[in-house]
Amino acid sequence: MKAWQVAELGEPEKVLRLVDVDTPEPGPTQLLVRVRGAAANFPDVLMCRGEYQVKPPLPFTPGVELCGEVVATGSEVSGIKQGDRVIGASVIPSGAFAEYALMEAATAFPAPEALDDAQAGSFYIGYQTGWFGLHRRARLQAGETLLVHAAAGGVGSAAVQLGKAAGARVIGVVGGPAKAEVARELGADVVVDRTTEEFVDVVKRETDGKGADVVYDPVGGETYRRSTKCIAFEGRIVIVGFAGGEIQSAALNHALVKNYAILGLHWGLYTGKDPDAVRACHDDLTALAAAGKVAPLVSERVSLEDVASGVQRLADGTTVGRLAVVPGT
């Protein structure tokens, strides 16, 4: 089969190579799936660079999220059969940027019928992360103001839709007019182009000085520090990641004086510590998709042959909406 492999670490376009490899065999608890749709995520970029917390041995195939058709199951797998369309995480080193990939049966879920392959392949990580961040960690309530950074990105775009579905007023921060259009299409009530506006001023103006009740921050660094200037009394800042490249330190005296909470979110821990909650979340998300309230905005669909350039555009911050790999297109 054809698969993209990383044999040395560096920028995606320089280190990804399309090669012919043996089709992997599923272990006892695993599935072998034909990849029908795979999302490009920032962890894929970090893996190529060797900067992700998971550092697979070289060579490996990235692609952490997919929609696939089951073609074989391990000896201990039950309840999933050949031909089922499933979504979930891949088992690195046999990732989703290939014709076939491996998945763990325990974290494979029925693909929502309301979503096509590209959308379904982009539905697992971002929307699960958003759901746990907004509902389990921040306890977002209807009528509250939600500030979402990187609102046109993978996890940010999901948070915009989930915030709207929860009845919040959503302010989305993006970089550039094209991404601003994406945030509006996703349903953000107010869109801030950080290249021309200061989001702190906009948030204060839009909330009559109160500030945002919840901040959803996958960027970190200076974005986090400025968010503390527009967080409401008893507000909650959800730390999702550090796509901006800087892991900031928190001034805890400021959190004390302003009476806000700083909440860390490592969604992947829930798959091991509370798998029932992950499955319940999937059921809720599937219902929201069926109702037309959430759906990944896939702005670009690329063939398997175009993976390296697509992941590099994600690394460079020039992608708009979600980028999905659809083999055979």
TrEMBL record:
<dbReference type="InterPro" id="IPR013154">
    <property type="entry name" value="ADH-like_N"/>
</dbReference>
<protein>
    <submittedName>
        <fullName>NADPH:quinone oxidoreductase family protein</fullName>
        <ecNumber>1.-.-.-</ecNumber>
    </submittedName>
</protein>
<feature type="domain" description="Enoyl reductase (ER)">
    <location>
        <begin position="14"/>
        <end position="325"/>
    </location>
</feature>
<dbReference type="GO" id="GO:0016491">
    <property type="term" value="F:oxidoreductase activity"/>
</dbReference>
<dbReference type="InterPro" id="IPR051397">
    <property type="entry name" value="Zn-ADH-like_protein"/>
</dbReference>
<dbReference type="InterPro" id="IPR011032">
    <property type="entry name" value="GroES-like_sf"/>
</dbReference>
<dbReference type="Pfam" id="PF08240">
    <property type="entry name" value="ADH_N"/>
</dbReference>
<dbReference type="InterPro" id="IPR036291">
    <property type="entry name" value="NAD(P)-bd_dom_sf"/>
</dbReference>
<keyword id="KW-0560">Oxidoreductase</keyword>
<dbReference type="InterPro" id="IPR020843">
    <property type="entry name" value="ER"/>
</dbReference>
<dbReference type="InterPro" id="IPR002364">
    <property type="entry name" value="Quin_OxRdtase/zeta-crystal_CS"/>
</dbReference>
<dbReference type="Pfam" id="PF00107">
    <property type="entry name" value="ADH_zinc_N"/>
</dbReference>
<dbReference type="InterPro" id="IPR013149">
    <property type="entry name" value="ADH-like_C"/>
</dbReference>
